[in-house]
Amino acid sequence: MFYMALGGMILFLAVSACLLVRLCLLKNALGRTADELREIRNEIEENRILKMDTSDRELERLLKEMNDTLYEIRREKTDFDRREKEFQRQIEDISHDLRTPLTSILGYLKLMNQSDMTREERDDFQIIQRKAEVLQRLIGQFYDFSRAVSSDYTPQMETIDVARILREAVLDSYGELERRHIACTIEIPDSPMEVRGNSEAVERVISNLLQNVKRYGKEYLHIRAAREGDKTVLFFENDRGDLSEEEFTHLFDRFYVKDKARGSQGTGLGLTIAKSLMEKMEGSLEGKLTDPAGIVFQAVFRNA
User: Fold this and answer.
1) Mean of the pLDDT values across residues 202-219?
2) What gap in Å lies between CA 131 and CA 146, rounded to an integer?
3) Model confidence, pTM
4) Residue (of 156, 110, 126, 161) closest to 281 by Cα position
5) Eight-class DSSP state of 168
6) How far apart are CA 93 and CA 269, in angstroms?
7) What does the pLDDT look like over 81-90, one tens digit per residue?
8) DSSP code for 260
9) Are 180 and 214 in contact (CB under 8 A)?
Protein backbone atom coordinates (compact mmCIF):
# COMPACT_ATOMS: atom_id res chain seq x y z
CA MET A 1 0.00 0.00 0.00
CA PHE A 2 2.83 2.32 0.91
CA TYR A 3 4.59 1.64 -2.39
CA MET A 4 1.41 2.27 -4.34
CA ALA A 5 0.94 5.62 -2.63
CA LEU A 6 4.58 6.46 -3.23
CA GLY A 7 4.25 5.50 -6.88
CA GLY A 8 1.16 7.66 -7.22
CA MET A 9 2.98 10.59 -5.62
CA ILE A 10 5.93 10.17 -7.98
CA LEU A 11 3.59 10.03 -10.98
CA PHE A 12 1.78 13.13 -9.78
CA LEU A 13 5.06 15.01 -9.34
CA ALA A 14 6.26 13.90 -12.76
CA VAL A 15 3.05 15.04 -14.46
CA SER A 16 3.15 18.31 -12.52
CA ALA A 17 6.76 18.87 -13.55
CA CYS A 18 5.88 18.23 -17.20
CA LEU A 19 2.97 20.64 -17.02
CA LEU A 20 5.16 23.24 -15.31
CA VAL A 21 7.83 22.91 -17.99
CA ARG A 22 5.20 23.18 -20.72
CA LEU A 23 3.69 26.23 -19.01
CA CYS A 24 7.11 27.91 -18.80
CA LEU A 25 7.81 27.15 -22.45
CA LEU A 26 4.39 28.51 -23.42
CA LYS A 27 4.92 31.64 -21.32
CA ASN A 28 8.31 32.25 -22.96
CA ALA A 29 6.80 31.69 -26.42
CA LEU A 30 4.00 34.16 -25.69
CA GLY A 31 6.56 36.68 -24.42
CA ARG A 32 8.60 36.37 -27.61
CA THR A 33 5.44 36.72 -29.68
CA ALA A 34 4.47 39.86 -27.76
CA ASP A 35 7.93 41.35 -28.42
CA GLU A 36 7.65 40.41 -32.09
CA LEU A 37 4.18 41.97 -32.32
CA ARG A 38 5.53 45.22 -30.83
CA GLU A 39 8.34 45.28 -33.41
CA ILE A 40 5.87 44.65 -36.24
CA ARG A 41 3.59 47.42 -34.95
CA ASN A 42 6.50 49.88 -34.96
CA GLU A 43 7.40 48.84 -38.52
CA ILE A 44 3.94 48.03 -39.83
CA GLU A 45 4.95 48.64 -43.46
CA GLU A 46 7.22 45.61 -43.47
CA ASN A 47 5.49 42.44 -44.59
CA ARG A 48 6.25 40.42 -41.45
CA ILE A 49 4.05 37.81 -39.78
CA LEU A 50 3.91 36.42 -36.26
CA LYS A 51 5.46 33.00 -35.61
CA MET A 52 5.30 30.70 -32.60
CA ASP A 53 6.68 27.20 -32.03
CA THR A 54 3.62 25.42 -30.72
CA SER A 55 1.59 22.32 -31.41
CA ASP A 56 -1.49 23.66 -29.64
CA ARG A 57 -4.31 23.96 -32.17
CA GLU A 58 -6.05 26.81 -30.32
CA LEU A 59 -2.85 28.84 -30.16
CA GLU A 60 -2.25 28.19 -33.86
CA ARG A 61 -5.77 29.46 -34.59
CA LEU A 62 -5.13 32.57 -32.48
CA LEU A 63 -1.87 33.20 -34.34
CA LYS A 64 -3.64 32.86 -37.69
CA GLU A 65 -6.32 35.38 -36.66
CA MET A 66 -3.64 37.84 -35.50
CA ASN A 67 -1.75 37.51 -38.80
CA ASP A 68 -4.98 37.98 -40.76
CA THR A 69 -5.63 41.13 -38.71
CA LEU A 70 -2.13 42.42 -39.45
CA TYR A 71 -2.75 41.83 -43.16
CA GLU A 72 -6.00 43.86 -43.04
CA ILE A 73 -4.28 46.68 -41.13
CA ARG A 74 -1.48 46.84 -43.71
CA ARG A 75 -3.96 46.78 -46.57
CA GLU A 76 -6.05 49.60 -45.07
CA LYS A 77 -2.93 51.64 -44.32
CA THR A 78 -1.69 51.20 -47.88
CA ASP A 79 -5.07 52.31 -49.24
CA PHE A 80 -5.14 55.28 -46.85
CA ASP A 81 -1.61 56.37 -47.80
CA ARG A 82 -2.49 56.10 -51.49
CA ARG A 83 -5.66 58.17 -51.07
CA GLU A 84 -3.82 60.72 -48.92
CA LYS A 85 -1.08 61.20 -51.52
CA GLU A 86 -3.67 61.53 -54.25
CA PHE A 87 -5.58 64.08 -52.18
CA GLN A 88 -2.42 66.11 -51.56
CA ARG A 89 -1.50 65.97 -55.24
CA GLN A 90 -4.98 67.17 -56.23
CA ILE A 91 -4.77 70.09 -53.79
CA GLU A 92 -1.36 71.07 -55.15
CA ASP A 93 -2.57 70.83 -58.76
CA ILE A 94 -5.73 72.84 -58.06
CA SER A 95 -3.75 75.48 -56.13
CA HIS A 96 -1.28 75.78 -59.00
CA ASP A 97 -4.06 76.01 -61.60
CA LEU A 98 -5.80 78.77 -59.61
CA ARG A 99 -2.66 80.76 -58.79
CA THR A 100 -1.77 81.48 -62.41
CA PRO A 101 -5.03 83.19 -63.48
CA LEU A 102 -5.37 84.88 -60.10
CA THR A 103 -1.91 86.42 -60.47
CA SER A 104 -3.02 87.82 -63.84
CA ILE A 105 -6.22 89.19 -62.28
CA LEU A 106 -4.25 90.94 -59.53
CA GLY A 107 -1.93 92.38 -62.16
CA TYR A 108 -4.86 93.78 -64.13
CA LEU A 109 -6.36 95.18 -60.92
CA LYS A 110 -3.10 96.95 -60.17
CA LEU A 111 -3.17 98.55 -63.64
CA MET A 112 -6.79 99.55 -63.21
CA ASN A 113 -5.95 101.17 -59.88
CA GLN A 114 -3.86 103.72 -61.77
CA SER A 115 -6.82 104.88 -63.88
CA ASP A 116 -9.24 107.68 -63.02
CA MET A 117 -12.30 106.54 -61.10
CA THR A 118 -15.18 108.14 -59.32
CA ARG A 119 -15.36 107.73 -55.54
CA GLU A 120 -18.09 105.11 -55.89
CA GLU A 121 -16.15 103.19 -58.53
CA ARG A 122 -12.99 103.26 -56.39
CA ASP A 123 -14.91 101.94 -53.37
CA ASP A 124 -16.24 99.04 -55.46
CA PHE A 125 -12.79 98.47 -56.92
CA GLN A 126 -11.17 98.25 -53.49
CA ILE A 127 -13.73 95.65 -52.40
CA ILE A 128 -12.88 93.54 -55.46
CA GLN A 129 -9.15 93.96 -54.80
CA ARG A 130 -9.47 92.92 -51.13
CA LYS A 131 -11.49 89.84 -52.07
CA ALA A 132 -8.90 88.87 -54.69
CA GLU A 133 -6.10 89.25 -52.14
CA VAL A 134 -8.01 87.09 -49.63
CA LEU A 135 -8.45 84.45 -52.33
CA GLN A 136 -4.73 84.60 -53.06
CA ARG A 137 -3.92 83.97 -49.38
CA LEU A 138 -6.36 81.04 -49.21
CA ILE A 139 -4.90 79.42 -52.31
CA GLY A 140 -1.42 79.97 -50.87
CA GLN A 141 -2.43 78.13 -47.70
CA PHE A 142 -3.69 75.15 -49.69
CA TYR A 143 -0.40 75.04 -51.60
CA ASP A 144 1.61 75.33 -48.37
CA PHE A 145 -0.44 72.50 -46.85
CA SER A 146 0.13 70.13 -49.78
CA ARG A 147 3.85 70.87 -49.62
CA ALA A 148 4.24 70.67 -45.83
CA VAL A 149 2.58 67.28 -45.42
CA SER A 150 4.10 65.70 -48.51
CA SER A 151 6.45 62.79 -47.83
CA ASP A 152 8.60 64.10 -50.69
CA TYR A 153 9.25 67.44 -48.98
CA THR A 154 12.28 67.67 -46.71
CA PRO A 155 13.31 71.18 -45.61
CA GLN A 156 16.98 72.08 -46.03
CA MET A 157 18.30 72.08 -42.47
CA GLU A 158 20.82 74.66 -41.30
CA THR A 159 21.88 76.60 -38.23
CA ILE A 160 19.56 79.59 -37.75
CA ASP A 161 19.02 82.27 -35.11
CA VAL A 162 15.41 81.61 -34.09
CA ALA A 163 15.41 84.62 -31.73
CA ARG A 164 16.06 87.01 -34.63
CA ILE A 165 13.34 85.45 -36.78
CA LEU A 166 10.90 85.63 -33.86
CA ARG A 167 11.69 89.32 -33.14
CA GLU A 168 11.20 90.27 -36.79
CA ALA A 169 7.91 88.36 -37.04
CA VAL A 170 6.52 89.97 -33.89
CA LEU A 171 7.59 93.41 -35.09
CA ASP A 172 5.75 92.87 -38.39
CA SER A 173 2.57 91.87 -36.53
CA TYR A 174 2.79 94.42 -33.72
CA GLY A 175 0.71 97.07 -35.46
CA GLU A 176 -2.16 94.68 -36.17
CA LEU A 177 -2.06 93.34 -32.61
CA GLU A 178 -2.36 96.90 -31.33
CA ARG A 179 -5.31 97.61 -33.62
CA ARG A 180 -7.01 94.53 -32.19
CA HIS A 181 -6.26 95.83 -28.66
CA ILE A 182 -4.20 92.73 -27.80
CA ALA A 183 -1.57 93.63 -25.20
CA CYS A 184 1.70 92.00 -26.26
CA THR A 185 4.63 91.27 -23.91
CA ILE A 186 7.87 89.72 -25.15
CA GLU A 187 10.75 87.87 -23.48
CA ILE A 188 13.33 87.15 -26.17
CA PRO A 189 17.07 87.17 -25.34
CA ASP A 190 19.19 89.75 -27.17
CA SER A 191 21.84 87.10 -27.81
CA PRO A 192 21.44 84.64 -30.70
CA MET A 193 19.55 81.40 -30.07
CA GLU A 194 20.93 79.01 -32.65
CA VAL A 195 18.84 75.97 -33.54
CA ARG A 196 18.64 73.40 -36.31
CA GLY A 197 15.92 74.33 -38.76
CA ASN A 198 14.94 75.96 -42.02
CA SER A 199 14.50 79.74 -42.10
CA GLU A 200 11.53 79.72 -44.46
CA ALA A 201 9.77 76.95 -42.53
CA VAL A 202 10.39 78.64 -39.15
CA GLU A 203 9.04 81.94 -40.48
CA ARG A 204 5.90 80.12 -41.64
CA VAL A 205 5.45 78.39 -38.26
CA ILE A 206 5.75 81.65 -36.32
CA SER A 207 3.51 83.50 -38.78
CA ASN A 208 0.80 80.84 -38.45
CA LEU A 209 1.00 80.90 -34.65
CA LEU A 210 0.63 84.68 -34.64
CA GLN A 211 -2.28 84.39 -37.09
CA ASN A 212 -3.93 81.98 -34.67
CA VAL A 213 -3.61 84.57 -31.89
CA LYS A 214 -5.25 87.20 -34.10
CA ARG A 215 -8.07 84.78 -34.86
CA TYR A 216 -8.93 83.70 -31.30
CA GLY A 217 -7.15 86.01 -28.83
CA LYS A 218 -8.88 89.14 -27.59
CA GLU A 219 -6.89 90.52 -24.65
CA TYR A 220 -3.22 89.53 -24.34
CA LEU A 221 -0.29 87.71 -25.93
CA HIS A 222 2.87 86.71 -24.08
CA ILE A 223 5.78 85.45 -26.19
CA ARG A 224 8.83 83.87 -24.59
CA ALA A 225 11.90 82.05 -25.91
CA ALA A 226 13.97 79.89 -23.56
CA ARG A 227 16.68 77.23 -23.55
CA GLU A 228 15.67 73.93 -21.94
CA GLY A 229 18.59 71.51 -21.95
CA ASP A 230 19.45 70.61 -25.54
CA LYS A 231 16.22 72.23 -26.78
CA THR A 232 14.99 75.75 -27.48
CA VAL A 233 11.30 76.41 -26.85
CA LEU A 234 9.13 79.23 -28.15
CA PHE A 235 6.06 79.91 -26.02
CA PHE A 236 2.99 81.69 -27.40
CA GLU A 237 0.49 82.24 -24.58
CA ASN A 238 -2.75 84.16 -24.98
CA ASP A 239 -6.34 84.23 -23.82
CA ARG A 240 -8.57 81.92 -25.82
CA GLY A 241 -11.47 84.34 -26.12
CA ASP A 242 -14.70 82.42 -26.71
CA LEU A 243 -12.86 79.27 -27.83
CA SER A 244 -14.30 76.38 -25.81
CA GLU A 245 -12.33 73.40 -24.47
CA GLU A 246 -14.08 71.14 -27.00
CA GLU A 247 -13.18 73.47 -29.89
CA PHE A 248 -9.57 73.63 -28.68
CA THR A 249 -9.18 69.86 -29.15
CA HIS A 250 -9.79 70.34 -32.90
CA LEU A 251 -7.36 73.22 -33.55
CA PHE A 252 -4.73 70.95 -35.11
CA ASP A 253 -7.32 69.18 -37.28
CA ARG A 254 -6.94 70.13 -40.91
CA PHE A 255 -9.73 72.31 -42.33
CA TYR A 256 -11.13 72.98 -38.85
CA VAL A 257 -12.54 76.50 -38.66
CA LYS A 258 -14.51 77.73 -35.66
CA ASP A 259 -17.90 79.27 -36.47
CA LYS A 260 -17.92 78.34 -40.15
CA ALA A 261 -21.34 79.95 -40.47
CA ARG A 262 -19.76 83.36 -39.90
CA GLY A 263 -17.93 83.18 -43.21
CA SER A 264 -14.40 82.90 -41.89
CA GLN A 265 -11.64 83.83 -44.33
CA GLY A 266 -9.39 81.04 -43.05
CA THR A 267 -8.89 77.51 -44.33
CA GLY A 268 -8.28 75.86 -40.97
CA LEU A 269 -4.84 74.76 -42.15
CA GLY A 270 -2.55 77.19 -40.32
CA LEU A 271 -1.78 75.06 -37.26
CA THR A 272 -1.79 71.84 -39.31
CA ILE A 273 0.91 73.32 -41.55
CA ALA A 274 2.89 74.63 -38.57
CA LYS A 275 2.83 71.27 -36.78
CA SER A 276 3.84 69.37 -39.91
CA LEU A 277 6.73 71.76 -40.60
CA MET A 278 8.00 71.45 -37.02
CA GLU A 279 7.98 67.66 -37.30
CA LYS A 280 9.81 67.87 -40.64
CA MET A 281 12.51 69.85 -38.79
CA GLU A 282 12.71 67.14 -36.11
CA GLY A 283 10.95 69.39 -33.62
CA SER A 284 7.44 69.49 -32.24
CA LEU A 285 4.47 71.80 -31.78
CA GLU A 286 1.96 71.23 -29.00
CA GLY A 287 -0.82 73.26 -27.44
CA LYS A 288 -2.55 73.11 -24.08
CA LEU A 289 -5.10 75.04 -22.09
CA THR A 290 -3.98 77.10 -19.11
CA ASP A 291 -5.90 78.62 -16.21
CA PRO A 292 -7.78 80.85 -16.24
CA ALA A 293 -9.13 80.62 -19.82
CA GLY A 294 -5.73 80.73 -21.46
CA ILE A 295 -3.96 78.76 -24.16
CA VAL A 296 -0.26 78.18 -24.80
CA PHE A 297 1.56 76.75 -27.81
CA GLN A 298 5.10 75.41 -27.50
CA ALA A 299 7.35 75.10 -30.54
CA VAL A 300 10.36 72.96 -29.65
CA PHE A 301 13.62 73.06 -31.68
CA ARG A 302 16.87 71.11 -31.39
CA ASN A 303 19.81 73.31 -30.43
CA ALA A 304 22.52 73.68 -33.04
Assistant:
1) 90
2) 23
3) 0.64
4) 156
5) H
6) 17
7) 787 777 777 7
8) G
9) yes
